[in-house]
Amino acid sequence: MKPRLLFATGNAGKLRELRGLVGDAVEVVSLEELPPIPEPEESGATFAENAELKARAYAAASGLPALADDSGLCVDALGGRPGVHSARYAEGDDKARYQKLLAELSGVPDDKRTAAFACALCLVRPGGGPAIIEVGRCEGRIGHEPRGSHGFGYDPVFVLPGGKTMAELTSEEKAAISHRGVAFQKMLPHLRAMAGGPPVGG
Which spans are transmembrane here (predicted)? Predict the structure, then answer.
């Protein structure tokens, strides 16, 4: 019987991405497939702290190893904001959030609009024990207007070094270079080891 792993997300895209990465080694289950679990408060000061808070809470409540992520956008001209508050940066939807960002950066020249997407993934086994944390970053800058129809969140205004926004990439292209994709690749050997298989690349 394959080991089960709870991926603590309600985001179908993230779930699909992880299932594609781990293949048949682990049965990845989502929060939607379990009885309701109260959502823990994300009170950490960093992405890693919030990811660990969520992973520990969901592992304890479900009795399964739990993987949780926390991610966001860090803009240099704003002192690292919105950071851990990226999802709560503005009332409303994704468009409201990136429009607020563009308004805050109005008049800021291109060379001062540097930014990075950051992601922390945390894996915790039920019963406590040490947490495994892996992080990923994707560097870029904030554009002056939204472009592209793929992705979500701040993707339409996040310009990559090649000139495309994150929202102009296919899901496969995004997974290969995104902050979450990088963190997933780093976490993959730990997930494979949990399944009793050899670590990837080792």
Answer: none
